[in-house]
Write a sequence for this structure.
């Protein structure tokens, strides 16, 4: 074959396969949204699921997912910041640093089902926290922490080192420089990364099946006393999330409209992840503009 | 050593050597810096002048693998000795770099940040420090109406003067300048040079520069570095009119470097 | 000159730095505690059956019969181990060429807008939750396979297809980074010799970036091997060594997912599931090791 002909064929194949990926995404999103969108209604988003009858909603599951996400971020963000700042600003090259880096890498490579099993063994059984929001949040912390460490480390490394020098020359302590000079510069990147990781947490199911549990008690959304068993805020109640719910109705759903509910719930999940993605992008750009644009006062 | 102390300048180095690993970047340099003078450090790239400057407020501490030998005396105390509170020390020594590096904060906060950290909480007092620092850096008139704007919105020359103002805000006794005008346009350079001349009335200044004319214009003393060694140190007029050393002569005439 | 060791006053900055360091040390320590306890707990549970002699290593790794509820129970995990490897390899085989083409498209064919088009596509694909992949697999791929091929549609083929889409983003982004990092002059000198683009790609670019691209492939395989729910939903979950791509089968993750909730902690059956979790964990270590080796080779 002439080199030119081969070149043309190869180029065509490459372009075709690349476009196939675009088509796969469009097909996927299109399918989920078209099939699920019709099922989404205010009632669907707020009412409780039905076991064997049609017309159930995903209200508690949606609430659980959001609540769990907030709990998880409350735990992971401070921890991830601490370890990430250590890796970026304090760790000197050496065995210990390499070891910690290996730990972060291994931890982020663990399948999420392993994280779920670990949570089941240690948090649910050993610490006796049962199938609960706390257990779920702790498992998701293990799942999300390595990512937060990486996001923080990279964000801090991207800050010009002259910023640190300027702080030193003013006689500031290193910790003060980190928190008051470097952190504000790194923050937009950290927030963007955190929002993206939030999408991942929101859609996670395998780590939650055996920690947050696969059921949700009847919730009374007028009861905001966190100690009451029917209160949505009670951190020690089981909390099936949206993602777990999708899995459950697909494998053991008895309601006649199980497929529609799964489609609707999938659409909600995907739309939420899309919103997270767009928010991260938008926010990143907004902050970037705010930091660099010359805004003049009159 | 005991008698030497009597003739010491209140700020000087004594046999200062700096190593990166086993490489000796600065070789046993003793230099005095008199009050109310500007000392220029000149020499070809890689001669160790910037390294030397950075060691004066122990900025090299943060580079792993670098070690410093010898002494840096400030008011009779060797700040290079172990046990020195480096962070407190740096308050006394301000520093400005080649590339302007304002904090990602408002103009006001850039200046007020240091004093606030060092204990000044009173808003009026802070306002005063901000104004006087900006005035001393000849920037006040240009920014007084937009102190709340981001410092990054300023031009390069303004940013550099802001950095000088920031350094002045904590009342240092010594100002270290690492090629402060090399990234600026001629007009801004002129302003910064004018500023340096005014500031030496209040403190002492050490400046690294690649620009011979600049060194001649603004400095009182000049030290010529080559390959980590101090080749010649004298009054600036002497160095630029009739240096003792052939190498100094050639460098100043622009034959190499 | 003897300097008396002055007692340094506890300054504000000392306190701040102490607090900062303690806080960070705690965070790092927590990371270490997490990983150590994970390894310890999974290993001790996973090895329990072997130590107590209730299941032998040869039975577990060599046995093809999984019948924990039979009168004479047998705990052969080979069907699941082989299922896991099979879907992982197939997924990598499907996804790798696609991903490499996508990476070439972004960096070599139309660098001007290829990245702008594919970058968001890749990010969105990687953002879609795995249960959604499972759901779409179950409602699109399985019926399609059922109508096109013999069998019920569920099985290894369905699992591999779903996984291949899931690992596309991983391989593509690593491969694209590797291609983008290639020195410009390498390509230019090839073009200068009169080589066509495809000749340059096949003889210069791909061989040079091979270890880096393989890193992406291994990372993708690691993800496929550990994925639980999406596979479980489409593979059929029959405990047999797969003989055909279109027959119901199982993976390690799918058996754990289904079995863990229905067995009593501490029973032989339950411990056998933990042994599978241990296998998953060891495979993770292996994947990380291989990635590190490839990265080292890539640096030289």
């Amino acid at each position: 074959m002439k080199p030119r002909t081969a070149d043309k064929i190869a180029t065509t194949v490459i372009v075709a396969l690349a476009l196939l990926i675009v088509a796969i995404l469009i097909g996927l999103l299109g399918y989920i949204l078209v099939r699920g969108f019709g099922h989404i209604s205010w009632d669907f988003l707020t009412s409780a699921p039905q076991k064997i009858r049609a017309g159930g909603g995903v209200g508690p599951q949606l609430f659980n997912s959001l609540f769990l996400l907030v709990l998880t971020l409350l735990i992971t963000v401070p921890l991830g910041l601490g370890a990430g700042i250590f890796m970026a600003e304090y760790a000197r090259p050496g065995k210990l640093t390499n070891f910690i880096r290996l730990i972060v890498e291994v931890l982020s490579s663990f399948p999420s089902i392993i994280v779920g099993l670990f949570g089941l063994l240690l948090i649910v059984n050993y610490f006796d926290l049962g199938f609960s929001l706390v257990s779920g949040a702790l498992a998701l912390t293990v799942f999300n922490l390595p990512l937060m460490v990486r996001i923080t480390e990279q964000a801090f490394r991207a800050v010009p080192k002259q910023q640190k020098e300027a702080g030193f020359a003013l006689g500031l302590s290193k910790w003060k420089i980190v928190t008051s000079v470097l952190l504000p510069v790194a923050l937009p990147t950290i927030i963007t990364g955190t929002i993206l990781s939030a999408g991942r947490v929101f859609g996670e199911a395998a780590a939650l099946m055996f920690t947050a549990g696969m059921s949700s008690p009847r919730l009374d959304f007028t009861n905001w006393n966190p100690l009451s068993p029917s209160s949505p805020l009670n951190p020690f109640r089981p909390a099936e999330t949206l993602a777990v719910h999708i899995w459950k109705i697909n494998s053991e759903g008895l309601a006649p409209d199980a497929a529609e509910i799964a489609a609707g719930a999938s659409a909600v999940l995907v739309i939420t992840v899309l919103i997270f993605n767009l928010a991260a992008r938008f926010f990143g750009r907004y902050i970037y503009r705010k930091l660099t644009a010359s805004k003049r006062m009159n | 050593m005991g008698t030497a102390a009597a003739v010491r300048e209140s700020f000087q180095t004594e046999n200062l050597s700096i190593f990166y690993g086993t490489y000796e970047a600065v070789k046993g340099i003793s230099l005095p810096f008199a009050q109310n003078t500007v000392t220029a450090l000149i020499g070809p790239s890689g001669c160790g002048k910037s390294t030397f400057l950075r060691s004066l407020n122990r900025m090299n501490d943060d580079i792993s693998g670098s070690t410093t030998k010898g002494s840096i005396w400030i008011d009779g105390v060797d700040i290079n000795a172990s046990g020195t509170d480096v962070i407190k020390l740096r308050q006394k020594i301000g520093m400005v770099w080649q590339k302007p590096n304002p904090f990602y904060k408002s103009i006001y906060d850039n200046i007020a940040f240091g004093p606030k950290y060092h204990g000044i909480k009173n808003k009026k007092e802070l306002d005063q420090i901000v104004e006087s620092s900006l005035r001393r850096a000849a920037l006040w008139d240009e920014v007084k109406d937009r102190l709340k704007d981001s410092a990054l919105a300023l031009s390069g020359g303004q940013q550099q003067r802001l950095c000088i103002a920031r350094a002045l805000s904590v009342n240092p006794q010594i100002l270290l300048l690492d090629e402060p005008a090399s990234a600026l346009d001629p007009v801004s350079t002129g302003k910064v040079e004018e500023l340096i001349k005014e500031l030496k009335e209040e403190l002492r200044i050490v400046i690294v520069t690649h620009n011979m004319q600049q060194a001649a214009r603004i400095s009182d003393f000049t030290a010529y570095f080559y390959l980590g060694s101090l080749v010649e140190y004298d009054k600036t007029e002497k160095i630029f009119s009739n240096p003792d050393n052939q190498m100094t002569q050639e460098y100043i005439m622009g034959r190499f470097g | 000159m003897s300097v008396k060791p002055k007692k340094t006053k506890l300054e504000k900055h000392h306190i701040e730095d102490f607090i900062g360091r303690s806080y960070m040390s705690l965070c790092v320590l927590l990371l270490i505690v997490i990983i150590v306890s994970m390894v310890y707990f999974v290993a001790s549970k996973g090895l329990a059956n072997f130590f107590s002699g209730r299941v032998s290593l040869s039975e577990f790794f060599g046995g093809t019969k999984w019948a924990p509820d039979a009168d004479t129970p047998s705990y052969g995990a080979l069907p699941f181990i082989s299922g896991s490897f099979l879907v992982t390899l197939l997924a990598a085989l499907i996804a790798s060429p696609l991903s490499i083409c996508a990476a070439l498209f972004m960096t070599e064919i139309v660098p001007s807008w290829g990245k702008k088009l594919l970058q968001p596509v890749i990010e969105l694909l990687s953002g879609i939750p795995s249960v959604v992949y499972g759901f779409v697999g179950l409602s699109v791929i399985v019926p399609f396979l059922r109508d096109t091929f013999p069998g019920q549609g569920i099985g290894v083929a369905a699992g591999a297809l779903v996984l291949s889409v899931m690992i596309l983003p991983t391989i593509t982004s690593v491969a694209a980074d590797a291609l983008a990092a290639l020195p410009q002059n390498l390509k230019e000198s090839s073009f200068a010799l009169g080589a066509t683009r495809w000749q340059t790609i096949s003889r210069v670019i791909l061989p040079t970036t091979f270890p880096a691209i393989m890193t992406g492939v291994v990372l993708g395989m690691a993800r496929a091997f550990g994925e639980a729910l999406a596979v479980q939903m489409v593979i059929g979950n029959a405990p047999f060594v797969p003989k055909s791509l279109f027959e119901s089968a199982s993976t390690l993750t799918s058996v754990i997912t289904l079995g863990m909730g229905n067995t009593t902690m501490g029973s032989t059956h339950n411990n056998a599931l933990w042994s599978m979790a241990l296998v998953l964990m060891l495979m993770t270590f292996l994947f990380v090791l291989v990635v590190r080796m490839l990265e080292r080779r890539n640096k030289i």
Q: What stands out?
A: The CA atoms of residues 201 and 207 of chain C lie 8 Å apart. Chain C touches chain A through 84 residues (CB under 8 Å). Confidence is low (pLDDT under 50) at residues 1-7 of chain C.
